[in-house]
């Protein structure tokens, strides 16, 4: 084997007189704008108190449309509004859900108590 074949040339000045050119590629980083469309759809189906879920879904669709067009500022604005509406719908839904459960528990307890009283009175007369 010839050892000159595997020799690395010494570094230094370029061997040719041709100027070295460089290429700069600017890669545009896509800013991720969440549109909260799944959250809005969940709130529309399950937590739609005061129609906040439907309004949040509409703003989420607007945010997605703005993002597809390339208007990131508009998309961020609509997405922020959709996020606030989703938070409001979720909080109101949880609070009203708890209140509904408590009121139903009280109503069923009162109905059970009244039914028990009626049955005890009937057993006394027979």
TrEMBL record:
Subcellular location: Membrane
Recorded coiled-coil stretches: none
Family annotation (InterPro entries): CD225/Dispanin_fam, IFITM_antiviral_protein
GO BP, sorted A to Z: defense response to virus; host-mediated suppression of symbiont invasion; negative regulation of viral genome replication; response to interferon-alpha; response to interferon-beta; response to type II interferon; type I interferon-mediated signaling pathway
Annotated keywords: Membrane, Transmembrane, Transmembrane helix
Domain of life: Eukaryota
CC per GO annotation: plasma membrane
Primary residence: membrane
Pfam families referenced in this protein's UniProt entry, alphabetically: CD225
Parts of the chain that traverse the membrane: 37-59, 87-115
Family statement: Belongs to the CD225/Dispanin family.
Annotated PANTHER family: INTERFERON INDUCIBLE TRANSMEMBRANE PROTEIN, INTERFERON-INDUCED TRANSMEMBRANE PROTEIN 3
Protein name: Interferon-induced transmembrane protein 1-like
Organism from which the protein derives: Canis lupus dingo
